[in-house]
């Protein structure tokens, strides 16, 4: 049985987290400050520490330094209520450190308590991924994760609806991963197949079924046996071919083109479209009976402008991917994060990724910073946003907090101070809201601010 020390001054959070840890089967002890934690560490040895980033008597990073000085081998999970600084903090830690963002879920705690998984995760990259592929901690993303968790326990067909670039294919992969089925995920774009080849692509064909059919071929339904079949852009399938798809969904059997023997198939069908329900009905691009077969469990994927809290995290993730691919060490400047957070992103995550890639290409090779002065949006993305009549998001709202990249040579106090002042600025000085966003108590925030006010003017600038 593992022994866990939970260090956090938020009593409500500590109570909930302690119950989760106990339910998993661990002995848990709690501390509300660095001083209390040091007392526990002097008397006991712990397998794992869950450590808040900001505590009443100092930063959680100070306690990490203390643990290292004692040469303890305990795994550490740093807890923060501020997703945008999580990637930046990774540069200050090592493979002993993992990361969670409040509010935490039982599955998150189970994952990090697995030492091998936690260590591998920290070594590969600092980004938590839901179901191995989804990144984000905004309320909209948490709702999406919950829906995926629930549908994964069933074999229901899923229809994904969302704007172009919002990540429908990644969500389909997340559903497949969460289902833990024995088969593979097989994907096909229904809008990219020639009309006379759709039957062969979906159901396969026998040798000699038509000119050019020199061998037998299995269709995607067979290839996805005991797995997931992803039908992307399903509303672009010709209407006259849809009855054949309906029969396969109803009977769970298919017949290859040119064949006579029915073949049983067993796979979950996840389909996707960037059309709205109103457009599907008005333009008659999908038969009603097909819709109800495909949309047993419809999921609306939020556009990026509906999850602004994830923009800093996704931006850092794309930079990390490029750094990993090209063996570089670029970082986004504070000004770049501000520009990115102010944009409405009509092209969604795809547009953000391409914007980061462009900045990476244009970066000065003699520096390690990526600057973004303006964002060049695709005319197609802008037209789509206009068609959907979605107003641009206002710059720097209270829901968006600028990231605080860690610079080499900065002290823990400087990093913490910068984070607090930037958060306060983003919410127009609302201390209660700032404390909530930072994941600390209002009392702790006031204590920090009082300490800063007593510093010299040069230190507080």
TrEMBL record:
One of its GO terms (molecular function) is sequence-specific DNA binding. One of its GO terms (biological process) is phosphorelay signal transduction system. The modification 4-aspartylphosphate is found at residue 52. InterPro entries: AAA+_ATPase, AAA_lid_NorR, CheY-like_superfamily, Homeodomain-like_sf, HTH_Fis, P-loop_NTPase, Sig_transdc_resp-reg_receiver, Sigma_54_int. Residues 134-361 form the Sigma-54 factor interaction domain. Residues 3-117 form the Response regulatory domain. PROSITE patterns: RESPONSE_REGULATORY (PS50110), SIGMA54_INTERACT_1 (PS00675), SIGMA54_INTERACT_2 (PS00676), SIGMA54_INTERACT_3 (PS00688), SIGMA54_INTERACT_4 (PS50045). It holds the Pfam family HTH_8. Residues 395-405 have a biased composition (Low complexity). Residues 382-407 are annotated as: Disordered. Keywords: ATP-binding, DNA-binding, Nucleotide-binding, Phosphoprotein, Transcription, Transcription regulation. It comes from the Bacteria. This is Sigma-54-dependent Fis family transcriptional regulator. It comes from Pseudoalteromonas rubra.
């Amino acid at each position: 049985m593992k022994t866990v020390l939970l260090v956090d001054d938020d009593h409500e959070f500590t109570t909930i987290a302690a119950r989760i840890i106990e339910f998993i089967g661990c002995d848990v002890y709690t501390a509300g400050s660095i001083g209390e934690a040091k007392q526990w560490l002097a008397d006991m040895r712990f397998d794992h520490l869950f450590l808040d980033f900001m505590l009443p008597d100092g930063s959680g990073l100070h306690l990490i330094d203390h643990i290292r000085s004692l040469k303890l081998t305990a795994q550490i999970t740093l807890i923060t209520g501020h997703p945008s600084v999580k990637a930046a903090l990774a540069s200050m830690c090592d493979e002993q450190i993992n990361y969670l963002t409040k509010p935490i879920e039982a599955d998150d705690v189970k994952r990090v308590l697995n030492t091998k998984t936690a260590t591998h995760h920290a070594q590969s990259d600092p980004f938590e991924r839901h179901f191995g592929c989804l990144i984000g901690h905004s309320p909209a993303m948490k709702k999406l994760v919950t829906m995926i968790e629930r549908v994964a326990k069933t074999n229901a067909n899923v229809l994904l609806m969302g704007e172009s670039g919002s990540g429908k294919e990644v969500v389909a992969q997340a559903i497949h991963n969460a289902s833990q089925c024995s088969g593979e995920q097989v994907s096909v774009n229904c809008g990219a197949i020639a009309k006379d080849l759709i039957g062969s692509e979906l159901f396969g064909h026998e040798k000699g079924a038509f000119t050019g059919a020199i061998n037998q071929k299995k269709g995607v339904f067979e290839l996805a046996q005991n797995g997931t079949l992803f039908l992307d852009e399903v509303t672009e399938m010709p209407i006259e071919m849809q009855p054949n798809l309906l029969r396969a969904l109803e009977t769970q059997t298919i017949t290859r083109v040119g064949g006579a023997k029915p073949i049983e198939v067993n796979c979950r069908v996840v389909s996707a479209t960037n059309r709205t329900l109103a457009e599907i009905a008005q333009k008659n691009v999908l038969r009603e009976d097909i819709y109800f077969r495909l949309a047993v469990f419809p999921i609306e994927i939020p556009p990026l402008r509906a999850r602004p809290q994830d923009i800093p995290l996704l931006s850092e993730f794309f930079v990390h991917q490029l750094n990993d691919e090209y063996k570089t060490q670029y970082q986004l400047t504070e000004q770049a994060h501000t520009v990115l957070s102010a944009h409405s992103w009509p092209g969604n995550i795809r547009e953000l990724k391409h914007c980061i890639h462009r900045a990476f290409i244009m970066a000065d090779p003699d520096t390690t910073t990526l600057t973004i002065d303006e964002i060049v949006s695709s005319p197609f993305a802008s037209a789509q946003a206009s068609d959907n009549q979605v107003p641009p998001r206002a710059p720097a709202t209270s829901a968006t907090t600028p990231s605080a990249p860690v610079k080499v040579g900065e002290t823990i106090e400087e990093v913490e101070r910068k984070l607090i002042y930037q958060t306060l600025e983003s919410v127009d000085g609302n201390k209660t809201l700032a404390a909530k966003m930072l994941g600390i108590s209002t009392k702790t925030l006031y204590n920090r601010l009082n300490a800063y006010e007593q510093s010299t003017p040069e230190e507080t600038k």
